[in-house]
Amino acid sequence: MWVPEILEVEMYRRAAELVIGRRVRSFQTNDAIVVKDGLQIQSLVGSRVDVVSRLGKLMTIHFDDGSIDLHFGMAGRVIVDGRSPIDELVYGASSNDRWIRFQIDFEDGFLAITDPRRFSRVGMSRTTSGLGPDAFSHGLFDQVQPRLPSKGSIKGVLLNQNVVAGLGNMLVDEILSRSAIDPRRDISTLTGPRIRTIFKAIDEVLPELLERGGSHMGDLAAELRVPGSRCPYDGRELSRGTIAGRTTYWCPRHQK
Ligand SMILES: [Zn+2]
After folding, report:
1. Domain boundaries in the chain?
2. Which residues of 179-198 are buried (b: 16+ CB within 10 A; e: fewer)?
3. Ligand 1 center from residue 230 Cα (angstroms)
4. pLDDT at 127 (0 to 100)
5. CA of 253 to the centre of ligand 1 (A)
6. CA–CA distance, 194 with 177 (Å, rounded to integer)
7. What would the pLDDT profile of 50-105 be if each residue is shown by its tens digit?
8. Are strands 100-106 and 66-71 parallel, antiparallel or unpaired?
9. pTM of the model
């Protein structure tokens, strides 16, 4: 199990596009921890799905009559017509059904969120003006530059969804490893060209890992995130520490 970051949510969004044009027959909104605005959501019964969009890690389903925001927390998964886009598991009459926290039933098929940990959140769309530009945006660096803070660890800056939307812990470690930057470095000590290197790495890493199957498929892959593992580029033992509140892996040889 890994935390959904921009790539996983993009896979969910693409899977959810299957329900575009379908009309809602009913909503299952009885998990009050995950689902806010249950009554308002119920008022969308009978409406049809127009568009499924994404900004960073936030997915929005737009109906002809209103929209619903879906946040996937630490472990949320989207299931469309019984299939998950990221694990090969086929859902149906299985034990995973007890993790369904929200479901939209259409005249034909369904879309559900499963989440064993219940950190996912579903509600009527809110204004998202606080979020930075989506990490997949073209010309990302130019959009982000005015939002960059003058101080703070570079890892914390990249995790801040109000600076750039969509990056999570594993992607940021991968991006900093590829840009050869120590995650502890304060942004105030990085020159303009080095900061640009990071944004070049973002442009490169996101499509590449989307193709490979998700944020756990980096060169600094999920299985290397254990004590004692070595840098995939130069073999040095990786350092491990808590930076910006998150468990971080980096290479003390090539990341400066
Ligand atoms: Zn290294």
Report:
1. 6-124, 140-250
2. bbbbbbbebeebeeebbebb
3. 8
4. 79
5. 5
6. 13
7. 999 999 999 999 999 999 999 999 999 999 998 888 765 555 444 567 899 999 99
8. unpaired
9. 0.92
SS3 49: strand
**Fold that domain 6-124 belongs to in CATH:** N-terminal domain of MutM-like DNA repair proteins (3.20.190)
CATH class, domain 140-250, is mainly alpha
Instruction: Give mean pLDDT, residues 28-53.
Output: 97
Separation of 34 CA from ligand 1 center, angstroms? 41
| 100-133 tens-digit pLDDT | 999 999 999 999 999 999 999 999 998 777 899 9
Q: Which residue matches tokens 């379908």?
A: 22
CB 248 within 8 A of CB 230: no
Per-residue tokens: 191: 């020159």
**Residue 1 is encoded by which pair of tokens?**
């199990």
Residue holding tokens 């090539």?
Answer: 254
Which pLDDT band, with edges at 50, 70 and 90, does 2 fall under?
confident
Residue 146 in tokens: 């005015």
Read off the DSSP letter of residue 185.
Answer: -
Distance 173 CA to ligand 1 centre (A): 12
238 Cα to the center of ligand 1, angstroms: 8
Helix (H) or strand (E) holding 121: strand 121-124
Cα 249 to ligand 1 centre (Å):
11
Asked if domains 6-124 and 140-250 share a fold, the reply is no
How many angstroms is it from 144 CA to the middle of ligand 1? 27
